[in-house]
Design brief:
heterodimer, A: alpha+beta, Rossmann fold, OB fold (Dihydrolipoamide Acetyltransferase, E2P), 2 domains, 6-stranded mixed beta sheet, 5-stranded antiparallel beta sheet, 20 strands, about 25% helix, about 35% strand, B: mainly alpha, MetI-like fold, 12 helices, about 0% strand
Chain lengths: ~350, ~270
């Protein structure tokens, strides 16, 4: 599949409020979303991800910048004239209409012939496995069923892009897992581009083709789940996605000199000033101090079943966490207070911006 | 029970007070209804059971005319005031908060605050000037006056319903290709319907029993049922007036019951 852009946000700014009190919910965001992909906007609440979604839907107008859909400028188009549909966090199902009437709504507004509306509605209800509830009022449905109606209603007009605003946040854990699988299936079956907003990193990692990490109204990094996890660009991205360790020191050629004087190899790092590197807990290797490596002391061990989290203290006082496979029963593991030599897996230490 | 809560119903004299209040409220009405079945000519001395006064009232041409006029005025007033109130409610809720919102709110509800007699005199004078200048006569003046003072009664339930409505429903309609008019027609209006019906009914009842403003504004031969009844007081009083009042009471109670049922079922859409 060629990587063809379907949505393009160019230098988008959205400010709320006036003058000095104005808050920039989006601060110069540029982003390309590709046709047919499952794209996730991930970030903590208040980071601007929902605002960006609402700008694409047309519920809000940007303060500056442009939004293109399929190459056409839609920046100022009202929502009813944009070929995109939204699944709302609250579902926003019409309480006075039946399930089938809800699903048919968009098609009717588009002026489709009655026979086509009926056929498409039936097909959509089958797609979300709700055909048996077509005649019900939406208030009589469970949360999961309402979620499926909202999906069917938004998919029925066959939008170019489906926008999903934290649609799973109201569901309990088990249902949420089910719906994650369901959403991915629907996206593959329909081939429609999904733009999914969430604050749940696990949801983002498991479902998305690509993820855009946001914070403070800025896009921090865009990439595949693996890109973002293994090569985070800055401290925020590294700490928001998964758990990680940070080490700070002075940059040398291909190494970082930390406070105690120890030298950590970081291929590609160039000398000059302070630098921060990150390394994931599962990339730490422990051995006897005699075998070399960074001298460290085991401060605490926390057993998690398959893993054991080993809290380490470096000589300069830096704390690190290593995630080790739990030793088999009978096998001797590390003990608190033990001196160890610490090594890092090859290529695991990454420079990050502050 | 670990803790005793303050309870009004346990205060000394609570039952007595309650009984006095209910007696004051309902004894006059029961007496009125009872004496409408009085066989004698007097409104105060019981002379046996009879439905003659109902028959008599039913065949009284003046009462028929006044009733018909009251119903026409109430229908027009309810329709006009509800339409205006719906627009006012949409205008005050479906937009961002604006400066002077409270002021507008007070302006719309003016008839609830200004003494009715003041409005009545003001209308009498203003309408007199208009009649003099244009020569236009007719029942229109009464309808106009009723429409105006019925607005807040229609406005309040409609506004309450609009404020309770989930705004994302209208956003969803727009997202699903509905134009602003289609959104109003297909989503807002159906969901607002119980509020509008309740508002219209309340306006109808308020218009139906108005005396003060009608008495000042009406021209000769434009008696409504309440002003006709007031007029009768100046002549000989017979249980006919009880019969008419009882029927008016019946209509009002029926409408208010419907109003109650409509506003109670808030979430049924």
């Amino acid at each position: 599949m060629t990587a063809e852009t379907i949505i393009s946000a160019r230098n988008v700014v959205k400010a709320f409020g006036q003058g000095a009190a104005a808050v920039r919910a989006l601060d110069d965001v540029s982003l390309d979303i590709l046709r047919g992909e499952f794209f996730t906007l991930l970030g903590p609440s208040g980071c601007g991800k929902t605002t960006l979604l609402r700008l694409i839907a047309g519920f809000e107008m940007p303060t500056g910048g442009q939004i293109l859909l399929d190459g056409a400028d839609i920046t100022t188009l009202p929502p009813n004239r944009r070929p995109v549909n939204t699944v709302f966090q609250s579902y926003a199902l019409f309480p006075h209409l039946t399930v089938a009437q809800n699903v048919a709504f968009g098609l009717q507004m588009l002026g489709k012939p009655a026979a086509e509306v009926k056929a498409t509605t039936a097909r959509m209800l089958a797609l979300v496995k709700l055909d048996h509830l077509a005649g019900r009022k939406t208030a009589q449905l469970s949360g999961g069923q309402q979620q499926r109606v909202a999906l069917a209603r938004a998919l029925a007009p066959q939008p170019k892009v489906l926008l999903l605003d934290e649609p799973l946040s109201a569901l309990d854990l088990k249902l949420r897992k089910e719906m994650q699988v369901e959403l991915k299936r629907l996206q593959i079956e329909t081939g429609i581009t999904f733009v999914f907003v969430t604050h749940d990193q696990e949801e983002a990692l498991t479902m998305s083709d690509r993820i855009g990490v946001m914070s403070n109204g800025k896009l921090q990094q865009v990439g595949t789940a693996k890109d973002i996890y293994t090569r985070p660009r800055n401290r925020f991205v590294a700490s928001f996605i998964g758990e990680t360790n940070f080490l700070t020191g002075t940059a040398e050629d291909d190494a970082l000199r930390i406070a105690g004087g120890a030298r950590i190899p970081v291929p590609g790092l160039r000398a000059g000033g302070a630098a921060t590197v990150t390394v994931r807990p599962e990339q730490l290797r422990l051995g006897p101090p005699a075998e070399g490596g960074l001298p460290a002391t085991v401060r605490d061990l926390v057993y998690f079943g398959t893993d054991t989290h080993c809290h380490l203290l470096l000589e300069d006082g830096t704390e690190l966490v290593a995630r080790l496979q739990s030793p088999a029963s009978g096998e001797a593991g590390f003990v608190t207070g033990q001196k160890v030599g610490l090594r890092f897996a090859e290529g695991a230490v990454q420079k990050v911006e502050e | 029970m670990a803790e005793k809560h303050f309870e009004v119903s346990r205060l000394p004299g609570f039952a007595t007070t309650a009984i006095i209040v209910f007696v004051a409220l309902y004894v006059p009405i029961f007496t009125l209804v009872a004496y409408s079945f009085n066989a004698s000519m007097s409104v105060a001395v019981w002379g046996g059971f009879s439905t003659d006064w109902y028959v008599k009232a039913w065949s009284n041409q003046q009462i028929k005319d006044a009733t018909l006029r009251s119903l026409i005025i109430a229908c027009f007033a309810a329709a006009i005031s509800t339409a205006v109130a719906t627009m006012a409610a949409l205008g005050t809720t479906r937009r961002k908060a604006f400066k002077g919102q409270t002021f507008i709110y007070v302006m719309i509800n003016q008839p609830l605050m200004v003494p009715e007699i003041v409005t009545a005199v003001a209308l009498l004078i203003l309408f007199g000037m208009i009649k003099q200048a244009t020569g236009i006569q007719g029942i229109g003046y009464v309808i106009l006056a009723h429409s105006a003072f019925c607005i807040p009664f229609a406005y309040l339930p409609i506004r309450a319903r609009l404020e309770g409505m989930d705004l994302s429903l209208e956003t969803a309609a727009a997202d699903l290709y509905a134009t602003p008019w289609q959104t109003f027609r297909r989503v807002t209006l159906p969901l607002l319907a119980p509020g509008i019906a309740a508002g219209a009914m309340l306006a109808f009842v308020i218009s139906l029993d108005d005396v003060v403003i009608t008495e000042f504004v009406k021209a000769g031969g434009q008696d409504t049922l309440p002003t006709y009844m007031l007029g009768q007081m100046k002549r000989q009083l017979t249980p006919e007036i009880n019969a008419v009042s009882s029927m008016l009471l019946l209509v009002t109670v029926a409408l208010l019951t419907a109003f109650f049922l409509l506003t109670r079922k808030k979430n049924d859409g």
